[in-house]
Amino acid sequence: MSDQDWSPFANEPRPRPPQGPPPGPGRAGVPPPGRPPGPAPSGQAKVPPPDPGAAGRATPPSPPRPTSPPRASPPEPGAAGRATPPPPPEPAGPRPAAPPPSGPDFDETTALRPPGLNRAARAPLVPEPDGTAILPVIPADDAVPAPPGADSEARKKRSVKRHRGDGGGMRGTVRGLGEALITLGAVVLLYAGYEVFGVSAEINNEQQTLSTDLDSIWDGEVEGETVDGAPIPELGDAFARMWAPDIRAEAWTLVEGTEPSDIEYAPGRFLDGAYPGEQGNFTLAGHNVPAIFSEIRSLEAGDKVVIETKEFFYVYEVQEHEVVNETEVTITEPVPHQPGVEPGDEDYWLTLFTCHPRWDNYERYVVYSQLVDTIERDPEGDLPPAAIDPEV
After folding, report:
1. Which of 55, 102, 105, 230 has the largest count of CB atoms under 10 Å?
2. Active-site residues: which are they?
3. Within a domain: residue 310?
4. Is residue 289, in this structure, part of any structural domain at all?
5. Is 243 helix (H, G, I), strand (E, B) or coil?
6. What's the CATH code of the domain at 365?
7. Number of domains comprising the chain
8. Helical H runs in the chain?
9. Are residues 351 and 303 in contact, defined by beta-carbon separation less than 8 angstroms?
10. Ordered DSSP codes for 159-210
11. Which residues form the domain of 216?
């Protein structure tokens, strides 16, 4: 071939004449939109032209799946002049966003990362063959930097939970035992309070009644045998008063007998003992409560105890005290601790005893006093100083 016959388009295939029906009016010689001019080379797959109305519609990306290389399909005869049918209507509802164009230099995929994570630490997005990208896995909570002090607080909470779960049965037993002991202690305190305040208030009221009865006895007519001008008392009857200003400002009213019913509200006289002012041992027993004899432990040698009868005041002086076993009965002998011995000229004893220790009764606390003075009583007169003044 000569230079004149050479052409750059010599090797290109000549265009084929169009097949099928001729194009309609207004379409002659105009290629479809978006289609490059010129016939497609043989061996390429025919790609249908895009729908002009689909430019604003979003098509959801299809998940990646293994596919074989696309196979070329032969062009359909007469398809060049046919219009592309419209796509089927899409379902109603929000349309997913169209996938961004893929490519090495264009990636608008937003990386999800927890707050506080360094941007350099996120995993890169690797595009798939279909243009989609797999989102990186969000790191666990422990990968997020914790605020200062959070680790120690979490460790404390875990420690508390761990300790709470240990020994549940034993803890319940100990808790129940502790509650029972607290309840028992409360009951004991209530009982002690009643013994100190409740019983004492009741005794003081009864003492007022007994004192009134005693005044009535002394003011009444006397028939039969008497003691210091008063009739011999029956069991439980009032017969005298006792004063001990060193431990109590008020007087006790004394009753006859030492049975529980006799001494419930007052000190009682031991029946085999002497009467006030008589030779021998005048013995009085009283309960271990503040309103009766619990405070005789405070009496000291030299303190005065005065017994008031209808006609006399007998002044006794404290000599000594001791604690004996509850079965020690020799304290009531005419001469204390000397059974069978006749009392002498100086054996005018007053013996006071009560249960010991304060909250039990297996021992006895004993106070011994001797008669040092006898004062005639004037019903209209005042009490002797020894009965009202602890300094005498």
Report:
1. 230
2. 287, 355
3. yes
4. yes
5. strand
6. 2.40.260.10
7. 1
8. 150-164, 168-193, 199-219, 385-388
9. no
10. HHHHHHTTTHHHHHHHHHHHHHHHHHHHHHHHHHHIIIIIHHHHHHHHHHHH
11. 200-388
Say if 237 falls within a structural domain. Answer: yes
Whether residue 357 has a cis bond before it, omega within 30° of 0: yes
Decide: 176 and 168 in contact? Cβ < 8 Å: no
pTM for the full predicted model: 0.55
Mind listing the pLDDT tens digit of every residue in the chain (392 residues)? Answer: 444 455 555 555 555 555 555 544 444 444 445 454 454 444 444 545 555 444 445 455 555 555 555 555 545 544 444 545 555 555 555 565 555 555 545 455 555 555 555 555 555 555 556 656 555 555 555 555 656 655 666 666 666 555 555 556 788 888 889 999 999 999 888 877 776 677 888 999 999 999 999 999 999 988 888 999 999 999 999 999 999 999 999 999 999 999 999 999 999 999 999 999 999 999 999 999 989 999 999 999 999 999 999 999 999 999 999 999 999 999 999 999 999 999 999 999 999 999 999 888 999 999 999 999 999 998 887 889 988 888 87
Look at the alpha carbons of 287, 291, 297, 300 in this order and tell me if their dihedral is positive or negative: negative
Tokens linked to 282? 């005048």
| Contact (Cβ atoms closer than 8 angstroms) between residue 352 and residue 332 | no
339 contacts 330 by C-beta, under 8 angstroms = yes
Q: Is 300 exposed, middle or buried (0-12, 13-18, 19+ CB in 10 A)?
A: exposed
Q: Write the DSSP symbol of residue 121.
A: G
Q: Whose CA is closest to 353, among 301, 284, 303, 302?
A: 284
Measuring CA to CA, which residue among 272, 274, 242 is closest to residue 347? 274
